[in-house]
């Protein structure tokens, strides 16, 4: 036993030295992984915990993720309770001092943007609501732009020798990204006022950004799967106030949306939601390119 | 397991009891008034601190988010109040369990052939039955410590008991992936020991837990050191020492009568498969330990190998998943039973599969089995006498989860742990309130 402990300690020391050469970033979601790569370039190694085809609310605290948090210098996540079912366990089990809350190595994106849908009343009869507000901030690129700046600042703290590199990377990214945002807004001006039906309330930031209108959710309450009675009442409501499309994310089950689509003739638009959500959305730029061109493809 | 009677700690609740003498009531009233004024003062202070905290948070937020030159000024957003970082500090949650049980044979006299049963290894009673109601407080204490307190409230024989299940602190920021846990807790031992019974897939624990660990968990006062190694795969080693108050240990006089050691590894295979496997060891000493009709003095060495595997298509367990889990136990007891020299081995195992076939529905099957140690002739007729029967049980499960926070389970068990078989049906609910508990793998 004693020998094993000594061997372990030695191997830890060795790996701690080699780790300094590169900053390991543990990103909870693909969008933050993509932002990290844009800014960190080849100076950082990024591990992304989830894919665009997974429901981030329901990830298991798998052993591989504990190992990844153990070896990270920074944990870069959405926050606002999105990862509350698994991230706290990972952080506690990993025993990694540098990613504890309050350290520069702990970055929760939602803490730095204005959140929507902060509940007035906390009651689980309202479904699985998030006390801090809607955490799906990625659907508005202006939020991503704010977070990219915060991330660059954190990298500069964690890896001072490369501070000027990160500054330059961020400047290049920010120029390109803000120009892209202006382009998307121009392109999407025709979407203003477009009424849509959503499944789970993950699109509030997108809808607000582009001035669309969401008139109904397929889930009766957040996190509660669509029930037949709720769908039936939705059908009557849609006859009174017609929508243009049903929008869902590529990770979401499409049975209920398809059913509603057959009944109403509304098209189901499967948006990527995050980087990797479809073949075309492969980085943070093409994510919004694809989202907007799919929405523009809906017959108005 | 030591039970703590908190009868004196709950004067407010007892004040309704007519059995109390008048002067006691007056005394209680005075105490209550004092408590109330203290509470009022605390409340005022808390409000002041909260107000200060809010302005600090605002200041920090504005300081950190520098205005960026923007081509598209953000549109006016619906005013969202900034949630304080400590909205759920400490996190408080309660778990309620209960149900109804049917047996073809009386559960109160049920035995496990060839094994003595620890205090909590028995079966739930026939008919309506309330499981443990659990209350948990947990929080990061500061940048260095995490703490948690779990109390289970039971009623036995008309008396309400508060049983301290866990009360521990854990370090957060030691170097090299090391962690120290101290206090009373469920040590890492096999797969299920560190998990609370309400988080299990099945309503009851499999036979090896009842036979080798005295019911559902080995819980004791002590300290555990563990290290997560800096490998690409998950690997962790650790061990601890404990007072020795819980089965299979009993107070041995030197204050650290039980010791554990463990090593475990885990990882992913592609995106859809993940696994965890480990070995662990418990050594315990017992002096004058009485269970059922036998008395034991000596050493117990328990070795456990465990493995768990989850298949979730695309790493997305929300709609469909398959979980396989198995543990093997091997035990040597060296000492004397009823003053007769004894050095024998026994073993047991279980394997279970749980399949989530719809987002809200699961079904499962479990087999568990034990192989007793055999006995010295003078112990014939005691609970150690298996009468050449090896205990086993088949269990089948159907579960409906309305949400993450509530589930209803129906379990059927063909229980042949005793000489004669017992058909068992259980219909139980489990709900959790309050803070959103994160789930262990």
Provide structural commentary.
The complex is a heterodimer of chains A (300) and B (441). Chain A is 44% helix and 12% strand. Chain A is an alpha/beta fold and 300 residues long. Chain A folds into 2 domains: 169 residues, Rossmann fold (3-Layer(aba) Sandwich); 108 residues, Rossmann fold. A 4-stranded parallel beta sheet of chain A has the order 2-1-3-4, with helices on one face. In chain A, strands 6-5-7-8 form a 4-stranded parallel beta sheet. In chain A, helix 7 links the parallel strand 5 and strand 6. In chain A, helix 2 packs across helix 5, helix 6 runs parallel beside helix 10 and helix 8 packs parallel to helix 9. About 3% of the residues of chain A have low confidence. By secondary structure, chain B is mostly beta strands. Chain B is 12% helix and 47% strand. Chain B is globular, with a radius of gyration of 25 Å. In chain B, strands 1-3-4-5-6-7-8-9-10-11-12-13-14-15-16-17 form a 16-stranded antiparallel β-barrel. Chain B starts with 10 loop residues before the first helix and ends in a 7-residue tail after the last strand. Classes of the chains: A alpha/beta (300), B mainly beta (441).
